[in-house]
Structures are given as structure tokens and as C-alpha cells.
Design brief:
The chain has about 350 residues and is of the alpha+beta class. It contains 8 helices and 18 strands. It has one domain: 4-Layer Sandwich (Anthranilate synthase), CATH 3.60.120.
């Protein structure tokens, strides 16, 4: 493990391409190391795709066969950190009154625009930095893995895009041959005591918008059907979830479907163009990879899976930038929206809590 830890540190210090990931409910952590070598765009083997939030920005593609790839069993990592406290339930918060006023102001402008009929829903986000001058990266990976077993967890070093990590619960789309599966994941509630509160009318309304928009986006490329909404558990949080499955129409491929879905109304809004224009004009920062998507295409096996990049953060020199957001409709309360983002931010905040220092 010491050699593995040093290899990770070397890649992060030098900004060499590197990928560490664990798929939902998997038991093997996969590592892709470049060791500073020039990457080749090989035709064989798995491909890793990286798309930022802005659909106009170029997609980045890595060929797995151009990396030195290895696997580590979860049990081995557990044994290595047996003496280290996990304690993901520890309290975490980083209040910022100035940021709160700014975010609530943007929420109110969005509500005003929605009430004027400019759009039906918009998803607004914010970013918050925390000082972390010393990071044990293998220990961070171990903590990240335990954030939620049902998520896609990753740590990535990209020379152009930076150092990112996250634990996303949302599948953008997966496919096997010509069959595909996706999900609408919108609406959030937290455990209160031992029970979850009832879903509100606003949450159901927001969820149904997402379902309708996904079906509309897919129609030119695939035949699709939806299941009944259900609860999707993500730690102490639940989301409303509707599964959507179907067949891809020839001559289209799963990447055509992914591009048609992105950005989904769950991370952008509805109608898409109006919401995207509002975000670009008012959000006040570049989301980068946050609410973009990333995942794999295995051409030989004719399968693929892409995940929406939620619950993620970027590392910059000596600090983490944590990203979080929420859906805004005509009935949204700016104060409640701020509180919701604070609670969502705690997922990644708890992962990096041992490395945070107050300034």
C-alpha cells in the first residue's frame, strides 16, 4: 500500500493523467496510471469519456490500454486503514454569510424569471472553497469509497481539467448492445429522526418535469418506456427516481443518447435552452466538470455506462472546491434552497473533514 500511496502522490504532484474508480457495489478499486507517459488514442480496450457541464466544450477521451492498470480489493484497503477512524458521520459545515446572501439573491432572480414565464425550472449551483494544505490521498480514497456504496466513486487527475473526485448516485445512461437504461433522479428529502418526511407537491412536480424532458430528448434516437417512481436511497438522503429503458434506433449509438440527454433538467432546468441561458448569465462561475458526465465505453463487449458528475469537488493547490446545487421553481424559498445546499455539501465535506484547516 505504501507504493500505491506514493504512486498516487507522484501523479498528483506532477499532474500526470491518473484515474481511480469504484463502480456501484463493486469490490475492486481500479487504478489507471500514466507514469508521465504520453497517452495514445488506441482503438482497442475500454475508453473513459469526460464531458463538462457546458455542452459546447469538447469531450475528453482516454484509452484504458494506454495506462498501467491495476486493481486493489476493498478488503486489502480496509485492512491497511484498520487503525484509522472513518467517522463519516462527524459534523461538517463551512458557513459563509456573504456567499449565502449572493446565492439567495440569485435564487430570487430565478423565481422572478419563472413567475414571468421565462422558464419553468432552473437548477442553480454554487461552489465553496475549504483550506486543505496536506492531503493523504489514499486515505481520502478510502473515505470516499465509504461515502455511499451505491455511487460511482472516483479520483481523477487530468493535465488540462485538474484534480477531481466525487461519489455520484446518478446514472446518465447505460447500454448493452442496443438496449439502454437511464433514470430520472430529482427531488430530495433527508432523514428526520427515524423516518423520512412525505414528498411535497413541489418535489413531485419537479420530478415529473425531469421525466418528460428525458423522454422528449430520447425520442429521435430510441424507443423508451418508463417505470413508476420509487425512492432512491443515498445514505441519509432519498431522491425520487423513475427508471427509463428501451431500444436504441439504428444507426444511433449510446453516445448519441448521452449527448441528447445532457444537460438533463435535473442539473440544468426546463426548457433546456432558457434554463441554460439563465445559468450562464447569472450563476457567476464556471462549473467545469460539475454536472457534466463521465464514464466508459467497452466497444468489444458492446456496453457502456455514463454517470452525471454530482457530489464532487476539485482540488486546487491547497484547497478543495466543493460544488452543490438545487432545483428552483416558482414556489422556491431562497432561504430553504440555501439550507438544502448546505446539507448536500456535507456529503463531500465529511469525506475531506480530516484534511481541513481553518484560516
Amino acid at each position: 500500500m505504501n507504493h500505491l500511496s506514493e504512486t498516487i502522490r507522484n501523479h498528483i504532484r506532477a499532474h500526470w493523467p491518473m484515474l481511480c474508480f469504484l463502480k456501484p457495489n463493486a469490490q475492486e478499486i481500479e487504478f489507471w496510471f500514466s507514469h508521465g507517459q504520453t497517452l495514445q488514442n488506441l482503438s482497442n480496450g475500454p475508453k473513459f469519456y469526460i464531458q463538462g457541464f457546458n455542452p459546447e466544450e469538447p469531450m475528453h477521451i482516454w484509452s484504458g490500454d494506454s495506462f498501467d492498470c491495476s486493481q486493489v480489493n476493498l478488503k486489502d484497503l480496509e485492512q491497511h486503514f484498520a487503525h484509522q477512524p472513518l467517522n463519516l458521520a462527524r459534523s461538517w459545515s463551512a458557513p459563509d454569510q456573504e456567499a449565502r446572501l449572493a446565492y439567495e439573491g440569485i435564487i430570487q432572480r430565478a423565481v422572478d424569471s419563472i413567475q414571468k414565464g421565462m422558464m419553468s425550472k432552473v437548477v442553480l449551483s454554487r461552489v465553496q472553497g475549504v483550506y486543505a494544505p496536506e492531503v493523504d490521498w489514499l486515505y481520502l480514497i478510502w473515505r470516499l469509497i465509504h461515502a455511499d456504496q451505491n455511487t460511482f466513486r472516483y479520483l481523477m487527475v487530468h493535465p488540462d481539467l485538474g484534480i477531481w473526485c466525487g461519489a455520484t448516485p446518478e446514472l446518465l445512461i447505460s447500454s448493452k448492445e442496443d438496449q439502454f437504461s437511464t433514470m430520472a433522479l430529482a427531488g430530495t428529502r433527508w432523514l428526520e429522526g427515524e423516518e423520512f418526511p412525505d414528498w411535497t407537491e413541489k418535489e413531485f412536480e419537479e420530478h415529473h418535469w425531469v421525466v418528460r424532458e428525458i423522454l422528449t430528448s430520447l425520442k429521435p434516437f430510441a424507443s423508451a418506456s418508463q417505470q413508476e417512481p420509487c425512492d432512491h436511497q443515498a445514505g441519509s438522503i432519498q431522491h425520487l427516481r423513475t427508471d427509463i429503458t428501451g431500444s436504441i434506433k439504428a444507426p444511433y449509438q449510446v453516445l448519441d443518447l448521452a449527448r441528447s440527454l445532457h444537460p438533463t433538467p435535473a442539473v440544468c432546468g426546463f426548457p433546456k435552452k432558457s434554463a441554460l441561458d439563465f445559468i450562464m448569465a447569472h450563476e457567476g462561475y464556471n462549473r467545469g466538470l460539475y454536472t457534466g458526465y463521465l464514464g466508459f465505453v467497452h466497444a468489444e463487449a458492446q456496453r457502456a455506462e455514463f454517470y452525471v458528475n454530482l457530489r464532487c469537488m476539485q482540488f486546487l493547490d491547497d484547497r478543495f472546491e466543493l460544488f452543490v446545487g438545487g432545483g428552483v421553481t416558482q414556489d422556491s424559498d431562497p432561504n430553504k434552497e440555501w439550507v438544502e445546499t448546505q446539507r448536500k455539501m456535507a456529503t463531500m465535506g465529511q469525506v475531506i473533514a480530516p484534511f481541513i484547516e481553518q484560516r
